[in-house]
Specification:
Immunoglobulin-like; 395 residues; four-stranded mixed beta sheet
């Protein structure tokens, strides 16, 4: 598309021959397909897309605003992208075959997106000319210091905006599908919006993958130039804020998933048969029913070593929702020590406590004479899916 001088002629003080159009962003995406589409092909588009979806998944792409991030997680493009980044770190400039392969893979993914988005009913080819043209100007050098981390931070606001616009694309696709079925044409305004979204998407993808260093503009326009330095700095600042928020959420999740839920217990009254408060940890309700501070095994099966004594605790476990809760003596600790003996409902563990069931666990510990236990802990087995533990603190 040719860009002419601005309305009213060239800027004041400049001649018509001296005026030059502003530079365009060095990543271009144009679509020139016919507006009339096949109703039959459109009706069965999801079925016809299955081979393309499989191949795009193998390459490492998907049809969302984050599909270019798939290169960091899987698919063939992830390996090529890693080679590209390493060579840029070492040489400061791209290797032709790696850079060209990434561009080629992105071109096929974008063509597949065009077919999926009902812009055409002509099946996308692997190479050669087609209705959708995607090109990237190959740079002589790429800045090492901007690889991955910096560009990820600076691109985050773009990711957010693209994801918000994605809902508009989805709405256009729904209405467009019905329009093609009844009229044979995709409404031009909606069609142009989808193409413009893909163009923005392609620019940000090329920037994030370090195919180019120029910061992409916040624009749907085909003639938009690179983003300004101010735009880059503001985006990076916002990106750092988003990253800090993400880290904060992850930390909060980890903190909530680990740690302990505590309850204070009067050790003397527990030994007299007064049960403790109930702790709910990982959908398991834990209650200390009683304690015996000078426990003797029936028939003197075991006797304590000189200077020690046996202490027993009866613990009630109520499995609320976990399908199969494994219960083992190693799940319990008294002042950091495992029990000498444990049983669940009279049988030695490990045992399974099914959902909505209650079981009583007898624990026997050997401790030094003259000492008082400080705390008893219970951490559900990994089958519960939690890292939290219940902690009863004696006083």
């Amino acid at each position: 598309m040719a860009v002419g001088p601005p309305p009213g002629g060239p800027p004041s003080g400049a001649t018509a021959t001296a005026w030059e159009p502003p530079p365009r962003y060095p990543v271009t995406l144009e679509f020139t397909g016919p507006e009339r589409l096949s109703r039959l092909s459109t009706f069965f588009r999801l079925i016809l897309m299955v081979p393309l979806l499989i191949f795009a998944a193998i390459l490492g792409g998907s049809f969302t605003s984050f599909s270019f991030l798939a290169g960091a997680g899987g698919g063939l493009i992830s390996f090529i992208l890693l080679v590209h980044w390493i060579t840029v770190l070492v040489r400061g400039r791209p290797v032709g075959w790696a850079w060209g392969t990434i561009v080629g893979m992105q071109r096929f993914i974008l063509r597949s997106m065009s077919y999926f988005f009902l812009l055409t009913d002509r099946y996308p080819p692997f190479e050669g000319d087609w209705y959708m043209q995607y090109d990237v100007e190959k740079p002589a050098r790429i800045r090492r210091r901007q690889l991955f981390f910096w560009k990820t931070i600076a691109s985050m606001p773009h990711f957010i905006v693209l994801s918000m616009l994605w809902f508009g694309v989805a709405v256009c696709e729904v209405f467009g599908w019905f329009a093609v079925i009844f009229t044979g044409k995709f409404p031009r305004g909606m069609r142009n919006f989808v193409i413009d979204w893909m163009r923005w998407y392609a620019r940000v993808g090329a920037y994030w993958m370090s195919l180019r260093d120029e910061f992409p503009p916040y624009s749907l326009s085909a003639t938009a130039g690179p983003g300004s330095r101010r735009s880059l700095l503001i985006s990076a600042f916002i990106g750092l804020g988003v990253l800090a928020a993400i880290i904060g959420i992850i930390v909060a999740i980890v903190v909530s998933a680990v740690g302990s839920v505590s309850a204070d217990v009067n050790y003397r009254t527990l030994a007299q048969g007064t049960q403790s408060p109930t702790i709910d940890v990982s959908n398991v309700k834990v209650t200390l029913l009683s304690a015996d501070d000078d426990y003797a095994f029936p028939g003197s099966l075991y006797v304590p070593d000189p200077g020690t004594r046996f202490v027993s605790f009866t613990v009630r476990l109520r499995n609320e929702k976990i399908a199969d809760l494994d219960v083992d003596g190693r799940d319990f600790h008294l002042d950091g020590e495992r029990p000498l003996f444990a049983s669940l409902q009279g049988s030695p563990p490990p045992r399974t406590l099914f959902a909505a069931r209650t079981g009583e666990v007898l624990l026997v510990f050997e401790i030094t004479k003259g000492t008082t236990p400080k705390e008893l802990t219970y951490r559900p087995s990994p089958s519960s899916g939690s890292l939290k533990k219940a902690k009863f603190v004696f006083h």
